[in-house]
Amino acid sequence: MQLNFENNHDTIQEYASTLPFFDNLYAAKAFYYEHREEHLKLLNEMAKEYDVLLDYSPKSLITLEELYFQLIRNNYLFDIQITIEEFETCMSFYLCEVLVTHHDGAAEWIVEEYPYADQKYVMGIRYGRFHQYFENLFPHFYLSHKDASQQVLFKRYTRMSMKSK
């Protein structure tokens, strides 16, 4: 079986078209900082609504995953008017913020120019020798995991934490 990379350019351009346009790196950093903070604030507001404490500790990732499945199972996301994708994005930012909080210097948020399009920038996280650019680390998480018993968020944090050293 041979891999076909003929349409690779189309994929790169399609992804680039989804990225916001910025005049410079500083504008991109400001935008992504605000974007991240808005999602974290939204997540904390939802957690308070359901009496869940998110204290940015690694163990709070277990609580967050339990909240996610409670909201999915009881169809509460519709009640609070947020999409599954938005909540998963909030979970992604929270996981990485926990990592950055507990590995100061070894993990950090980054914003860099997307190499295949002018004035397009991506946000991600650097931990140890690794870089990961993302918007949502858990797309359609509820389809691949039936409940919070596997503690996937906490395990992912643990793996990323080990690589941060």
Describe the structure.
By secondary structure, the chain is mostly helical. The protein has one domain (22-163). 54% of the residues lie in helices and 11% in strands. The chain has helices at 8-18, 25-49, 60-73, 76-79, 84-102, 141-144, 152-163, and strands spanning 107-113, 121-127, 130-133. A 3-stranded antiparallel beta sheet has the order 1-2-3. Strand 2 (121-127) and strand 3 form a beta hairpin. Helix 2 crosses helix 5, helix 3 runs antiparallel to helix 5 and helix 5 (84-102) packs parallel to helix 7 (152-163). The chain is globular. The N and C termini lie far apart (39 Å).
Which term fits the overall shape?
A: globular
Give the beta-strand count: 3
Domain tally: 1
Question: What low-confidence regions span 5 or more consecutive residues with pLDDT below 50?
Answer: none
Q: Helix/strand-derived class?
A: mainly alpha
Number of continuous helical runs: 7
H/E element sequence: HHHHHEEEHH
Strand order of the largest sheet: 1-2-3
Helix proportion of residues, in percent?
40-55%
- From the alpha carbons, calculate the radius of gyration and give it in angstroms: 17 Å
Task: Write down the overall mean pLDDT.
Answer: 93
Q: Beta-strand level of the residues, as a percent range?
A: 5-15%
Can you summarize this structure?
Helix content is 54%, strand content 11%. With 165 residues, it is mainly alpha-helical. The chain is globular and about 45 Å long.
Topology:
Elements: H1 8-18, H2 25-49, H3 60-73, H4 76-79, H5 84-102, E1 107-113, E2 121-127, E3 130-133, H6 141-144, H7 152-163
Antiparallel strand pairs: 1-2, 2-3
